[in-house]
Amino acid sequence: MSLALVGVFVIAVAVLLMTAGRDEASPGSDAPGGRTDSRLVRADSRILGDKGSTDVTFVEFLDFECEACRAAYPIVEQLREKYGDRVTFVARYFPLPGHFNSGRAARAVESAARQGKFLEMYSKMYESQAEWGEKQEPLDDLFRSFAVELGLDMTTYDTDYSSAEVASRVQRDVDDGTALGLQGTPTFYLDGELLRPSSVADFEKAIEDALAK
């Protein structure tokens, strides 16, 4: 994705990060203790792309139905394009209770991840959010159609999507976020420190500083 395209989203994400969750998300009394805090990155946490060559880790707690997360998505993609060889980008599920289908979306993405299609379903959810976001009806069939498009084994997908194991996997991310004091999305951490960006430049400076340490 080009810098020009990312620039289109800068103003939108700056506003949304302040109004749709970011300034509500703050560390609680049990705040993270740094890059080794397992509540930020678990052994089975989903990684966007490949692990980076350094220990620098960028974590996003996200909700696929969240408009601010959708606005941040192309920026995160730009950051991955620029720093993905050096920085590990981790996505954590944090579906908010006010979003009717966000939990379902997270289960669909996790089910796809179990067939090696995490990144593809992750991207599909954001790219199609205008189609399904804010709907007050279950959209299991729509998400299933995404799985069909991705060529997943549908017997396995259906089993995983409705399984207690996948629901528990999503809930574990939610529990970690809650323990960290999160109240909104998207919430970003860089090497265990809460990151409050308002522009692409803020993201890049923080990452450059972390890489320079």
Distance N terminus to C terminus?
Answer: 28 Å
What share of the residues lie within helices? 40-55%
Biggest sheet details: 5 strands, mixed
* Biggest sheet: strand arrangement: 1-3-2-4-5
Which whole number gives the mean pLDDT?
Answer: 88
The rough form would be described as globular
Structural class: alpha+beta
Q: Count of helices?
A: 9
Q: Low-confidence runs (pLDDT<50, min 5 residues)?
A: 1-12, 14-29
Beta-strand percent range: 5-15%
Q: Give the tally of β-strands.
A: 5
Secondary-structure element string: HEEHEHHHHHHEEH
Radius of gyration: 16 Å
Features:
5-stranded mixed sheet, 9 helices, 5 strands
Secondary structure layout:
Layout: H1 3-19, E1 46-47, E2 57-62, H2 67-83, E3 88-93, H3 102-113, H4 118-127, H5 129-132, H6 140-149, H7 154-161, H8 164-179, E4 187-190, E5 193-195, H9 200-212
Parallel strand pairs: 2-3
Antiparallel strand pairs: 1-3, 2-4, 4-5
Helix pairs in contact: 1-2, 3-4, 3-6, 3-7, 3-8
Give me a quick take on this structure.
By secondary structure, the chain is α+β, with helices and mostly antiparallel strands. It has helices at residues 3-19, 67-83, 102-113, 118-127, 129-132, 140-149, 154-161, 164-179, 200-212, and strands at 46-47, 57-62, 88-93, 187-190, 193-195.
Note down, in words, how this protein is organized.
This protein has 213 residues and is an alpha+beta fold. 50% of the residues lie in helices and 10% in strands. The chain is built from 9 helices and 5 strands; from the N terminus they run H-E-E-H-E-H-H-H-H-H-H-E-E-H. It has helices at 3-19, 67-83, 102-113, 118-127, 129-132, 140-149, 154-161, 164-179, 200-212, and strands at 46-47, 57-62, 88-93, 187-190, 193-195. A 5-stranded mixed sheet has the order 1-3-2-4-5, with helices on both faces. Strand 2, helix 2 and strand 3 form a beta-alpha-beta unit. Helix 3 packs parallel to helix 6 and helix 3 packs across helix 7 (154-161). The longest helix is centred in the first third of the chain and has 17 residues, at 3-19. The radius of gyration is 16 Å and the shape is globular. It starts with a helix and ends with a helix. Residues 1-12 and 14-29 have low confidence and may be disordered.
